[in-house]
Design goal:
- The chain is α/β, with parallel strands linked by helices.
- Helix content is 32%, strand content 26%.
- It folds into two domains: 4-47 and 101-170 and 278-353, FAD/NAD(P)-binding domain (3-Layer(bba) Sandwich), CATH 3.50.50; 173-274, Alpha-Beta Plaits.
- It has helices at residues 14-25, 102-115, 159-164, 235-255, 308-323, 330-354, 356-364, 367-377, 383-395; strands spanning 4-10, 30-33, 48-50, 66-70, 72-77, 80-86, 97-100, 119-121, 128-132, 135-140, 143-152, 171-181, 199-204, 210-216, 220-228, 270-276, 290-292.
- Strands 1, 2, 8, 9, 10, 11 and 17 form a seven-stranded mixed beta sheet that branches. A seven-stranded mixed beta sheet has the order 6-5-13-14-15-12-16, sandwiched between helices.
- The termini are far apart.
- It binds flavin-adenine dinucleotide (FAD).
- The site of flavin-adenine dinucleotide has 43 residues, from helix 1, strand 3, strand 12, strand 15 and strand 16.
């Protein structure tokens, strides 16, 4: 008889690795399958994670996986008119955002899963799943595995969801990202000689429906730009978008006297889709055999395209539902946790992108506006409420 697992998890990113870690820690027999030939693998990403995620997922210690933490956001409009704003909670305590390099961060989570007893197999590209009354078969080429449950943690274009008939109407954004190495490292609290210490850079105006960023790491800068894709993108439009995002990256770098390195050793400029929350669709099958976490579930904050903390949190939640045999409650729990927040963020995003310059001047540059953004990053309980207030402020600029 083939070995039967309690749960097979497809994809070893933050969502899958957290599900595997927490399910194995709770006593489940777990198999984690990853397409990449070996781990660590690179995932194009800014790697910014609000430290407030530790309030929701137990056992995260940034000393084990983060390069550094930032406490300020430096906003700008087309590279100019900058404002440097601290991030703080309502009580004034500084709010941190961890800056991680994804290979190190993701490997750390996979190591936690293995230490808790999960079996990890790399170089396995899952092609699909079949559900029946007694469980699930997961297939990759000629090989198959059996389990009681399967978790799709296979990212933006995941096959588990499609195979299980979940999230068939997906909406995507696209981002381009490059990691520019530098030698200087941390000195006198300054990570890069040309950049503000303790700060991540966000630039608006060059990209419609999006923004550009510079996130500092210990020995490199993650620089990128991303935007929500039109509902029916054509190949030509996609090519134009690729060029537009590259120009946005160049222009942000130029505003701080930096450029993309050229030559044989030049780092790669990646492109990667970002799925977006579209609302009401179920995230588990009616027979409760298959469920989705992270990007595969579309749990990405629609204004900033932030997805790591939601991958961790849905992974943790999925593990709890699996361990208590309550997969039926999973979709409702995800909605209770995130729907208000994501819907509010989408509304703010729509207002912002309709009148970006006005929104920048009245919303982002306004000290109250930057304080609000700081509190959003602090992950306070009233996050959806704060987003709603920002939205009202942008709609009615004269209202106090
Ligand atoms: C350029 C860019 C910048 C971003 N910056 C940030 C940021 O700063 N902060 C933030 O919070 N979010 C950011 N995001 C979003 C964030 O990267 C994702 O939300 C996050 O990676 C989701 O984690 P995940 O585990 O769900 O999926 P992923 O990290 O995509 O992991 C999915 C895994 O599944 C594997 N896989 C896929 N298909 C198969 C298959 N068929 N069989 C087996 N394995 C498979 C993949 O190889 C991969 O390892 C960014 C996204 C992009 C594109």
């Amino acid at each position: 008889m083939p070995e039967i697992f309690d749960v097979i998890i497809v994809g070893a990113g933050p969502g899958g690795a957290t599900t595997a870690w927490k399910a194995a820690e709770g006593g489940a027999k777990v198999l984690l399958l990853e397409r990449a030939p070996q781990l660590p693998r690179y995932k194009p990403c800014g790697g910014g994670i609000p430290a407030s995620v530790a309030q929701h997922v137990e056992g995260l210690d940034p000393a084990e996986f983060a390069d550094l933490s930032i406490t300020h956001l430096r906003h700008s409009w087309k590279g100019k008119d900058p404002v440097l704003a601290p991030m703080a909670t309502a009580s004034g305590a500084p709010a941190e955002v961890w800056m991680v390099q994804r290979p190190r961060f993701d490997s750390h989570l996979v190591a936690r899963a293995e230490a808790a007893g999960a079996t990890v197999r790399t170089g396995v590209k899952v092609g699909g799943i079949e559900r029946d009354n007694s469980g699930v078969t997961v297939r990759a080429g000629d090989t198959s595995w059996r389990a009681r449950y399967v978790v799709g943690a296979d990212g933006a274009k995941g096959v588990v969801g499609t195979s299980a008939g979940l999230r068939l109407k997906r909406r995507y954004g696209i981002a381009r990202e490059i990691e520019i190495p530098f030698q200087d490292g941390i000195e006198d609290g300054r990570w890069h000689p040309q950049l503000e210490p303790n700060a991540a850079y966000l630039d608006y105006g060059t990209v419609t429906n999006g923004y550009a960023w510079i996130f500092p790491k210990r020995n490199c800068l993650s620089v990128g730009a991303g935007m929500l894709l039109p509902k029916r993108p054509t190949p030509e439009a996609n090519r134009d978008i690729g060029n537009l995002l590259k120009r946005a990256i160049d222009s942000l770098l130029a505003s701080v006297n930096l450029t993309i390195p050229e030559g044989a050793d030049a780092p790669r400029l990646w492109a990667h889709p970002i799925p977006f929350w579209t609302g009401a669709e179920p995230l588990a099958t009616a027979d409760n055999r298959a469920l989705l976490v992270g990007d595969a579930a579309g749990v990405v904050q629609p204004m900033f395209g932030e997805g790591i903390q939601y991958a961790l949190r849905t992974g943790d939640l999925a593990a709890r539902c699996l361990l208590s045999n309550d997969v039926a409650a999973y979709t409702d729990h995800v909605r209770e946790l995130f729907a208000d927040e994501f819907d509010a963020a989408a509304r703010v995003g729509r207002v912002f992108h309709k009148a970006p310059f006005l929104s920048y001047r009245l919303g982002v540059k306004n000290p109250r506006g930057t304080a609000l953004v700081g509190r959003l990053m602090a992950g306070e309980a009233s996050r959806a409420h704060l987003e709603q207030r920002l939205y009202e402020r942008l709609k009615n600029p004269l209202r106090r």
